[in-house]
Amino acid sequence: MSLLETLEQKARLHPKRVVFPECDNEMILKAAAEVVARKIGHPVLIGNSESISARAVELGISTEAFSFFNNSNEQQLEELADEYTARFDELSRKAVLRKAKDPVNCAMLLVKAGRADCAAAGREYTTAEVIVAAQSIIGMQESFSSISSLGIVNVPGFEGPEGQLLAIADCAVNAAPDADELADIAISSGHTVETLLGWEPRIAMLSFSTCGSTEHESIDVIRKAIDIVHGRVPDLKIDGEFQLDAAISPGVAANKVKRESDVAGKANVLIFPNLHAGNIGVKLIQLFGKADAYGPVLQGFAQPICDFSRSAPLSEMMGNIIMLIVRAQHGKEL
Q: In what order do the strands lie in the sheet with 305-307?
């Protein structure tokens, strides 16, 4: 059984309410219909139910199982503002009414207010717009200050501690993370693989150096990040700095790492030092390793959020939604 098939089974056990803000988009309507057909969740669509349903009919999609929130309807907006401000005080009633006019903000308000369990966007909105909306409304996990992304790759022929699977971060968000941001990325990634996949994380901080084989100021950032993680989460298995082969090859690790390590040669989570390395790395794995890549999963928010690629096929969108729902089954992010 593939990774996504396994996760889909998990999603089906406890379906969650997924709010979609981009309901003029054909692919969003198809994804919402797939959520219903696969019995993994309950779509909540933002916009006028009549116009959305008319468009769905043109596409041969039934909206019978959809819920709607019309963010142009004053009564519905007033009810949301009352409900939100009764529970939270960071936004005024006037601010809630103003923000909810924008569908992506409205989606985040519904999640924060408990009317939906998670939000999925990105077909029309940019990644930056999705992140800003989520940061300003849903907010961050406690003790975190950085958003990041994690991908899961299935590499044919690779034989690691999780078979052909590896988790990699951050390949989509942080261009040049400092030590605190790298520590956030590592800790978030560990939490994600525990929640989503049930793994015990073994996190390798990647570099062009292994255990001091080279000295450079950029490596000092990685070493400081490891120290920060040890201070914040002492039980988390994290080590480095490691070159890629020392992180995932037991034979290379035995030759290069001359000390005890719970991670060297058996890492299941790889943390890239910056976005250049992460973006290049994932594309090398896909192009030359013929790997399937799942995600990216956005990490660091207080509640689960999904950002689609604007060119993603339906199959990729569904993979992201399945992972989103499984994360939502754990309530607020760990």
A: 67-69, 41-46, 16-20, 118-121, 305-307
pTM value is 0.90
DSSP-derived secondary structure for 257-315: --S--SSTT--SEEE-SSHHHHHHHHHHHHHHH--EEEEEEEESBSS-EEE--TT--HH
> What's the rounded mean pLDDT across residues 61-85?
97
Residue type, 256: K
The answer to whether residues 44 and 69 touch, using CB atoms and an 8 Å cutoff, is yes
User: How far apart are alpha carbons 118 and 108 in whole angstroms?
Assistant: 8
Quote the radius of gyration of the chain (alpha carbons, Å). 21
pLDDT tens digits along 33-66: 999 999 999 999 999 999 999 999 999 999 999 9
Q: Give tens-digit pLDDT for 252-296.
A: 999 999 999 999 999 999 999 999 999 999 999 999 999 988 888
State the burial class of residue 59 (Cβ atoms within 10 Å of its Cβ: 0-12, 13-18, 19+): exposed
C-beta separation of 34 from 62 below 8 A: no
Residue 239 host element (H or E): strand 237-242
Distance CA 288, CA 284 (A): 6
Share of the chain above pLDDT 70, in %: 99
Q: Do 265 and 214 contact (CB within 8 A), yes or no?
A: no
Question: How far is it, in rounded angstroms, from Cα 268 to Cα 67?
Answer: 39
- Distance between CA atoms of residues 109 and 99, nearest Å: 9
The upper half-sphere exposure of residue 70, i.e. CA atoms within 13 Å in the direction of its Cβ, equals 11
What span, in angstroms and rounded, lies between the C-alpha atoms of 122 and 202?
Answer: 31
pLDDT digits over 136-191, tens only?
999 999 888 899 999 999 999 999 999 999 999 999 899 999 999 999 999 999 99
**The two three-digit tokens of residue 301, written as one number:** 């928010």
CA separation (Å) from 128 to 13, 249, 257, 308? 32, 36, 39, 12
Tell me if 155 sits within 8 A of 170, measured CB to CB. no
